[in-house]
Design goal:
This protein is mainly alpha-helical. It is built from five helices and two strands. It has a two-stranded antiparallel ribbon. Helix 1 crosses helix 2. The radius of gyration is 19 Å and the shape is elongated.
Protein backbone atom coordinates (compact mmCIF):
# COMPACT_ATOMS: atom_id res chain seq x y z
CA UNK A 1 0.00 0.00 0.00
CA UNK A 2 2.81 2.45 0.84
CA UNK A 3 4.33 1.80 -2.57
CA UNK A 4 1.02 2.35 -4.33
CA UNK A 5 0.45 5.62 -2.50
CA UNK A 6 4.01 6.81 -3.17
CA UNK A 7 3.74 5.93 -6.86
CA UNK A 8 0.37 7.63 -7.16
CA UNK A 9 1.65 10.78 -5.44
CA UNK A 10 4.76 10.72 -7.67
CA UNK A 11 2.62 10.35 -10.79
CA UNK A 12 0.27 13.12 -9.66
CA UNK A 13 3.17 15.51 -9.23
CA UNK A 14 5.45 14.58 -12.11
CA UNK A 15 3.09 13.22 -14.74
CA UNK A 16 -0.11 15.11 -14.06
CA UNK A 17 1.47 18.35 -12.79
CA UNK A 18 -0.76 18.35 -9.70
CA UNK A 19 0.03 20.25 -6.52
CA UNK A 20 0.73 17.47 -4.03
CA UNK A 21 1.02 20.04 -1.23
CA UNK A 22 -2.74 20.52 -1.62
CA UNK A 23 -4.42 18.21 0.90
CA UNK A 24 -7.35 17.59 -1.44
CA UNK A 25 -5.00 16.07 -4.04
CA UNK A 26 -3.61 13.61 -1.49
CA UNK A 27 -7.09 12.92 -0.13
CA UNK A 28 -8.21 12.01 -3.65
CA UNK A 29 -5.24 9.63 -4.01
CA UNK A 30 -6.11 7.95 -0.70
CA UNK A 31 -9.72 7.63 -1.78
CA UNK A 32 -8.87 6.35 -5.28
CA UNK A 33 -6.65 3.65 -3.77
CA UNK A 34 -9.39 2.61 -1.37
CA UNK A 35 -7.25 3.32 1.69
CA UNK A 36 -8.65 4.02 5.14
CA UNK A 37 -9.27 7.78 5.17
CA UNK A 38 -9.54 7.83 8.96
CA UNK A 39 -6.14 6.20 9.39
CA UNK A 40 -4.63 8.53 6.79
CA UNK A 41 -6.14 11.59 8.46
CA UNK A 42 -4.83 10.56 11.87
CA UNK A 43 -1.32 10.13 10.44
CA UNK A 44 -1.43 13.50 8.67
CA UNK A 45 -2.63 15.15 11.87
CA UNK A 46 0.02 13.47 14.04
CA UNK A 47 2.58 16.12 15.00
CA UNK A 48 5.21 13.48 15.81
CA UNK A 49 5.30 12.43 12.15
CA UNK A 50 5.93 16.04 11.16
CA UNK A 51 8.71 16.17 13.75
CA UNK A 52 10.34 13.05 12.30
CA UNK A 53 10.18 14.50 8.79
CA UNK A 54 11.59 17.84 9.98
CA UNK A 55 14.45 16.03 11.73
CA UNK A 56 15.27 14.26 8.44
CA UNK A 57 15.17 17.57 6.55
CA UNK A 58 17.40 19.20 9.18
CA UNK A 59 19.91 16.34 8.97
CA UNK A 60 19.98 16.57 5.18
CA UNK A 61 20.66 20.31 5.43
CA UNK A 62 23.40 19.72 8.00
CA UNK A 63 25.02 17.18 5.66
CA UNK A 64 24.56 19.52 2.67
CA UNK A 65 22.44 16.95 0.84
CA UNK A 66 20.54 18.72 -1.87
CA UNK A 67 19.00 15.91 -3.90
CA UNK A 68 17.64 12.40 -3.96
CA UNK A 69 18.47 9.67 -3.80
CA UNK A 70 21.32 10.32 -1.38
CA UNK A 71 23.70 7.82 0.18
CA UNK A 72 26.44 8.37 2.76
CA UNK A 73 29.26 5.84 2.55
CA UNK A 74 31.64 5.43 5.49
CA UNK A 75 30.41 8.66 7.10
CA UNK A 76 32.16 10.97 4.65
CA UNK A 77 31.53 10.05 1.02
CA UNK A 78 28.26 11.46 -0.35
CA UNK A 79 26.61 10.02 -3.41
CA UNK A 80 23.70 12.21 -4.47
CA UNK A 81 21.44 11.77 -7.44
CA UNK A 82 20.98 9.06 -10.04
CA UNK A 83 24.58 8.00 -10.43
CA UNK A 84 26.21 5.25 -12.49
CA UNK A 85 26.85 1.90 -10.82
CA UNK A 86 30.61 2.44 -11.10
CA UNK A 87 30.50 5.38 -8.71
CA UNK A 88 28.92 3.18 -6.05
CA UNK A 89 31.46 0.43 -6.66
CA UNK A 90 34.33 2.92 -6.38
CA UNK A 91 32.96 4.24 -3.08
CA UNK A 92 32.55 0.75 -1.63
CA UNK A 93 35.94 -0.41 -2.86
CA UNK A 94 37.49 2.28 -0.70
CA UNK A 95 35.92 0.56 2.33
CA UNK A 96 37.36 -2.89 1.69
CA UNK A 97 40.79 -4.18 0.95
CA UNK A 98 40.60 -5.94 -2.38
CA UNK A 99 41.69 -9.19 -0.68
CA UNK A 100 38.61 -9.03 1.59
CA UNK A 101 36.07 -8.51 -1.19
CA UNK A 102 37.74 -9.15 -4.55
CA UNK A 103 34.42 -9.66 -6.35
CA UNK A 104 33.42 -6.12 -5.43
CA UNK A 105 36.56 -4.39 -6.62
CA UNK A 106 37.39 -6.13 -9.87
CA UNK A 107 36.70 -4.44 -13.13
Amino acid sequence: VDTEFAQSAFDAYFKENMDTTDPSVLNDIVSDLGLDMGEYSSCVGDATIGDVIQAEVDLAKELAITGTPAFIVDCDKKLVGALPREMFLDAFCLLFEESERPELCTA
